[in-house]
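Friendly challenge for the regulars: who can give me the structure tokens for this chain first? No prize, just bragging rights.
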Amino acid sequence: MEYLQVFDEKLKVCMLAFQEFVFSPEKAKILGAQITGQSFIINFFNRKIIVSKQSLLDTEGRDLTPAVKVLLLKYLLLCPDRIHETTHKLVTFREFSNASPLFSSFTTNTAKIIETTFSGNLAKLEAQCVRLGGTIVETAAHDLSVRFRALHRIPIILNFNDREEMLPANASFLYHDNADAYLDLESLMLTCTYLTGLLIRTDI
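First reply, four minutes later:
Bragging rights claimed.
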């Protein structure tokens, strides 16, 4: 309950800040968003979200959790003045500046869950990834490598090696090296936490 209350409070702060947000074609282009009237349409894991100064809903009218609302509002509010190009270098969450205090929580709520849930069940993980719109990346280094697009500027790579003899399953999430130019660390962590939740769901 305390966790939910924290995001309720953060959502109030973000919504207040968003009242002053200036809608512009330049910012929409940077973020890969579409302007329609006084709203933005953002793709969040292939789910179209309508963001206005009154509400955040997907295009089917379904509500979002406070945490996801905060994440999406921050994506807009933290929009940089220019596009920060990536070198396409992939980095772990821990490699971002000042991420160390959050890394343990990040691992516990993402990679560890994937390892526990899909150890010995590689085919199920692959099926879930494809169902969620992930793109399989051919690689000899991993049993499975999948590219997702959390947001237009935030692609995520999931690498997974299944258990083998004495070796346990191993999972890791990677970002492009410019991801922290578009989202704060807490929101970056939430992208992978949200994706992990989707992957372990059995009702999709």
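The radius of gyration is 17 Å. Helices lie at 2-18, 25-31, 66-77, 100-109, 111-118, 122-131, 185-200. Your move, everyone else.
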